Amino acid sequence: MALNVVCFQREAQVCWGVQQQKEIFILNFEQPETITTEQLIDLGIEKIRERVNWESSINSDEVQFLSPISANQKVICQGANYVQHMIDSGIDPKQKNFNMFFTKSSASIHHPVGEIIKPKHVQLLDYEIELCLVIKQKIEHEIHITSSNLHEYVAGICIGNDVSARDIQIPETQFFKGKSYRTFCPLGPVLCLLEKDELHYLNALELTLKVNSQIRQQDSTRNMVFKPAETLSEMSQLINFAPGDVVMTGTPSGCALSIPSPILVKISALLPEQKKWELFIHKQKSNGRYLCVDDRLELNIRSADQHIDLGTQKHQIKF
What we know:
Shape: globular
Strand content: 25-35%
Number of helices: 8
Order of helices and strands: EEEHHEEEHEEEEEEEHHEEEEHEHHEE
Mean pLDDT: 96
Helix content: 10-25%
Largest sheet: 11 strands, mixed
């Protein structure tokens, strides 16, 4: 059975535990505050189970959830990886024969409940719910991953929000900068460690993101264009991974960013650079979907049969 691991703070003490519905059972570590995600993953799911104190539990309402992904881990991202999102972006999914990769700063890793800070100069703050893969072992050379050996490389999964400053990302052509401000990568609350026979759930998870209780994004991982096995195979040509590193697998349609019409693109190409981007920001702001101060976000990912439930992220936008 999958194991839902959480990191949390209670009475000023950092702890690790295993969550079952509203109950959290403590994981026994001598210095839990020093345990990294890499060290946790290296233990393996069976040894983690052996450390659970099943004799007593804490109600999850009594704790402050922290990110189960520690700040030393890498975050690698896929862009435009859902069928409808590609179509909305003007891309034909049947003609897309390559992945788009980028990174987020480890400094952007953030807790799954609390506040997301909108930098005061950012005008177009966007949201992107994503299923995150958590790497199981070191990858230091090119490998061929398939559905039959995927369990050797994926330890588990969690919710991620690829928060993005579109007025930095697009006019400045700075994906890394526009997506890496502090608090721009909430992860968790649950790090769901999967058994070998549960990896098939990666293709059957429902993603939902709400802003102020209104559904903005809703889709299934079955609609991913590039599946986890082929994505990790391609990434292994370029990236050295450590246990606990995170791969964000793309977001469904429904984010605030809207693609300008072909006519508007042609007209704007004739304008001076500064005027062109002023027009872009004005048109984007007029759609009314970008995040504002005090907006509330709620994200969840789960399977239809409820066997996999990655908990709920909850944030409010603040300066």
